Amino acid sequence: MTREEFLKCQEGMDAQWPLPDYMQGVKGHTQYRDETYQIITRWTADTPIAYRPHAKSPGSKSHLRYEQYSKATTVGETLNFGSYPQDWCWDYERGFIKVLGGPIREEPLDISKGEDSQVTDVDRAINTWYQRELAKMLGMKVSYISASAGWGESVHIRALRLLAQKEAKECLEAADADGRAITDNELLLILKRWPFFRNPWRKNVMQPGKTWVFSDTLGLLRDRQGDVHLTAPTRRYPQVTELLARWLTDRLPKEVKSFKFTSMNVNCNYAASLHRDNGNFGPSFIKAFGDFSGGHLQYWPEDAGGDLKDLQSDGRITMDLQKNLSLFNGNCAHAVEDFNGSRYSIVYFTVGCHAAIEQEDREKLQRLGFPYPSADEDPFELMRPPRGKGGMGEAPAKAHGSCPAYRTFEASILHENCQRRPKSAEEVRKITEGRVQPENARSFYATDQRRIRKGYDTPAVSESSAKDDEANIEFY
Ligand SMILES: [Fe+2]
Fold first, then answer.
1. Span from the CA of 301 to the centroid of ligand 1 (angstroms)
2. How far is ligand 1, taken at its centre, from the CA of residue 173, in Å?
3. Cβ contacts of 444 within 8 Å, gap of 6 or more
4. Fewest CB within 10 angstroms: 183, 282, 341, 452, which?
5. 242 assigned to some structural domain
6. Which domain range does residue 26 map to?
């Protein structure tokens, strides 16, 4: 192909093959964008694609390679024609590749869980390349990441969570230095980075036919054996937890300044079906983040129990969680409306068993910035109980308090409540040194530790391997 022929081919092509929206008109560099990684790592061998014809100028090696692999119509073909994931990133960020449909994965393939026969060459290529990229971002060896993964984490998940931990720590230090609240953008950065657990336990929020939701709990939780402890991600990624907690505590309006919480449910991209969160103590704060439309919270503030099917629509209010930070009673019926786009939500709440916490865990949570409730905390200090209007159960005894049944605050101005002042580099260094450190021991909350915490003198069985312990532990 001559230079003239090449130039002729380019006429009108930029309009037909635009850059992805998230590039905002700027072509990529070798440091690829997070969005690009998210897209490429979800491709499969059968994902149909089209290449912009003759996009690379003649006279270079990349032109010859491009002419070869751009004939591909699937990701599997382009790999066979000699292009690799790093080429896909480069070309995608320039608008040279269009994805024409599915299949596309909901999340990157965890190759360690795949059956060999189902893992394709494309899966292996993406897996190997992505692990190396993540290790590069972390400045760590793949072998370290792999060795320190555990608690149900694949190497990818471990690497992404380590990145979230690193970035959260940097955000906290920047906010300390500036004397300001954590911004919505910083929070969103961490939520987007965080790979969510496919949580099969929260059945009450699942839509019919679903068997899991993307949901993690940070802070305190009671596991299925009845043990009350900090969840594993809380201990392994403490600054992610600290940042999420601080986003709220720095914003609390004065009338709810005394709000306490032990735990945070962090949710990604699911519309919770109609449910009650039985066992929550006192009110919860809730806020949604991300680029989405819809997804309002439907809430029955006077619901005091009974069959969910009997709920009346006139007892329902609608909360816009994108605009507002809202205080509600999770024990009253609520549901999330359908939405389009990418939606994250955080629910700050107190577990019913909060008084049973170990002293060590309480101290750790307080160091992470949780305003922990006292054992005799009044659950109705900020919000009265439901009145059971509309025939929904019996009204509890304190049903006629002066507090409202819910509260809502415009979120965009709440950062003004932040009381921090700017800190010197020396002060920031001291705060950083004093932060809760990430833990990586496979032994915390293992079967033996659990027995000892519960007052047994001896380990349960002598051969409780780390693997068995992981299988036994439910920390979400
Ligand atoms: Fe809920």
1. 13
2. 32
3. 232, 235
4. 341
5. yes
6. 3-99
Q: Do 370 and 462 belong together in one domain?
A: no
Is 105 exposed, middle or buried, given 0-12, 13-18 or 19+ CB atoms closer than 10 A?
middle
Is pTM beyond 0.85 here? no
User: Can you give the CATH number for the domain in which 281 is found?
Assistant: 2.60.120
The amino acid present at 364, given as its one-letter code, is K
Going from the Cα of 303 to the center of ligand 1, the distance in angstroms, rounded, reads: 14
Residue 88: name the closest of 119, 47, 116, 60 by CA.
47
Asked, for residue 173, whether it belongs to a domain, the answer is no
Q: How far is the CA of 349 from the centre of ligand 1 (A)?
A: 10
Q: Are 466 and 449 in contact (CB under 8 A)?
A: no
Same domain membership, residue 198 and residue 240: yes
| C-alpha 236 – ligand 1 centre gap (Å) | 25
Asked whether residue 129 is assigned to any structural domain, the reply reads: no
Same domain, 458 and 343: no
Residue 425 has a CB neighbour count (10 Å cut-off) of 9
Look at residues 103, 89, 102 and name the one whose alpha carbon lies nearest to residue 40: 89
Q: What is the pLDDT of residues 354-366, one digit of tens each?
A: 888 889 999 999 9
- Top pLDDT among 82 and 3 is at 82
Residue 459 shares a structural domain with residue 383: no
**117-144 pLDDT, tens per residue?**
678 999 999 988 998 998 998 988 888 8
246 and 385, same domain (yes or no): yes
pLDDT in tens, 218-271: 999 887 777 888 999 999 999 999 999 999 999 999 999 999 999 999 998 888
Percent of the chain with pLDDT over 70: 88
How far does the chain reach from its first CA to its final CA, in angstroms? 59
Q: What is the per-residue pLDDT for 252?
A: 96
Total domains in the fold of the chain: 3
- Please check the confidence at residue 475 and state whether its pLDDT lies above 50: no
Give dist(CA 319, CA 259) in Å, integer.
20
> Which single residue is written with the structure tokens 């494309």?
122
End residue of a domain, out of 36, 64, 99: 99
Q: How far is the CA of 462 from the centre of ligand 1 (A)?
A: 40
Same domain, yes or no: 395 and 449? no
- Span from the CA of 334 to the centroid of ligand 1 (angstroms): 7
- 151 alpha carbon – ligand 1 mean position (Å): 25
Distance 287 CA to ligand 1 centre (A): 12
Q: How far is the CA of 332 from the centre of ligand 1 (A)?
A: 9
- DSSP code of 275? B
Q: Which two tokens stand for residue 332?
A: 């009253």
Residues with a beta carbon under 5 angstroms from ion ligand 1: 277
CA of residue 317 to ligand 1 center, whole Å: 15
Domain boundary (69, 99, 129) is at: 99
- 409 and 471 assigned to the same domain: no
Residue 59 has pLDDT above 70, yes or no: yes
